[in-house]
Design goal:
With 373 residues, the chain is α+β, with helices and mostly antiparallel strands. Helix content is 38%, strand content 19%. The chain is built from 13 helices and 11 strands. Strands 1, 2, 3, 4, 5, 6, 7, 8, 9, 10 and 11 form an 11-stranded mixed β-sheet that branches.
Length: 373
């Protein structure tokens, strides 16, 4: 634990910052129930000043989120992660309108419109585990274009409005800069993102292979001379046989069919622009006619079973986000600032990484006095 904390938080310049970060990390791992600053402080010390010290660390202390997440990334990379990078989204319900980035959004999972923040995270796969190694907070234009809100929340000048697909692309770019993994496959559930085509084109320009859930209304162009022209992904797959077909990629041998699938292109940005690389459009088992969950992958030469197994890992990303909510305090940050949100996400990511890769730690039998500046 000492070695992990000293490595992950070594970019914090002052000894008191590193000491507070270690204490906060220990508290996240041993405090039962909600992980508020007050409960964490009470779990690690009888000194009443510790509450203020930990609150200072999260909301006001000047340390760099990117440096800590880079250390976590490298810590995970030394455990030889697999070749899949996941992108996940999490809705964080909030009260009032003061928390940075809060807005009204329809949450597909609960089926309700919520007052919430929206965060996107990237995850490295290590065996069956998925480790959070970066985060990006969605800021609607009602925040980025409001000078007073920006000032009160301490939003940097460099932070401007980005649609969710651009946040996902930014996460991939930042992870690419940290790791030399040109063959990594990007996995994401973007089934509720109408502009997912921009993400797919951006990843194609970066030569990234993808397995991405897409909305049924996504326009695609079936491969073949008898192509009917642009059709929606949902209507195209609904017209496939229930047993799937044996399809021939444009430049490869025949592959056995599995779930319903078909080769498609994404349309160009203009009618004169030639279509890009081929993708395989397929449905998760049991989804056609029920949830309508469709997937698009650039892995057209891979077996249907391999592709379906990769897509199934998206449920693991959802499970990690659920664990972060229930056991690591993802929903418990009460601060309102932009730096505070990122500091909180770095701390809970460190706690999850340690628990996942190194196991649980036992809470102290007695709460020793802990003096923090």
């Amino acid at each position: 634990m000492e070695h992990f904390s000293g490595t992950v938080f070594r970019s914090l310049r002052r000894i008191d910052q590193r000491k507070c970060a270690h204490a906060y990390l220990s508290g996240l791992l041993t405090t039962p129930g909600k992980k508020t600053v007050r409960r964490i402080a009470a779990g690690i010390s009888r000194d009443p000043s510790v509450v203020q010290s930990l609150r200072q660390l999260v909301s006001l202390s000047p340390w760099n989120f990117d440096d800590v997440m880079q250390e976590i990334t490298h810590w995970v990379a030394r455990r030889h992660p697999g070749v899949v990078w996941s992108i996940g989204q999490t809705v964080l319900p909030k009260r009032g309108d003061k928390s940075v980035g809060v807005h009204r959004r329809f949450d597909l999972q609960s089926g309700r419109t919520l007052n919430c923040q929206l965060g996107l995270g990237s995850f490295l796969h290590v065996g069956s585990a998925q480790i959070p190694v970066d985060w990006s907070l969605y800021l609607p234009q009602s925040w980025t274009q409001d000078i007073e809100r920006r000032r009160d929340a301490r939003i940097p000048v460099s932070e401007q409005y980005l649609p969710t697909w651009a946040h996902a692309l930014r996460l991939v770019d930042r992870l690419s800069a940290r790791l030399d993994s040109p063959s990594a496959v990007v996995l994401a559930d973007m089934g509720n993102e109408p502009d997912v085509g921009y993400l797919l084109r951006g990843l194609a320009l970066r030569r990234r292979d993808v397995v991405i859930a897409v909305p049924p209304q996504l326009a695609v162009l079936p491969v073949g001379e008898a192509s009917p022209g642009l059709v929606s992904a949902g209507s195209l797959l609904h017209g496939q046989g229930p047993e799937g077909d044996t399809l021939t990629p444009p430049d490869g041998p025949q592959q056995a069919g599995g779930p319903p699938s078909v080769l498609v292109h994404l349309p160009g940005n203009s009618p004169a622009q030639s279509p890009g690389p081929p993708y395989r459009l397929f449905a998760s088992e049991g989804d056609i006619g029920t949830t309508g969950r469709l997937w698009l992958t650039s892995l057209v030469r891979h077996s249907p079973g391999t592709i379906a197994a990769t897509a199934a890992r998206a449920s693991g990303t959802t499970a990690v986000l659920d664990a972060l909510r229930q056991d690591f305090g993802l929903l418990d940050f009460a601060g309102r600032s932009f730096p505070g949100w990122y500091h909180h996400m770095a701390l809970i990511s460190a706690a999850y990484t340690f628990r996942c890769l190194h196991g649980a730690i036992a809470p102290p039998r007695r709460r020793p006095p802990l003096r923090l500046p």
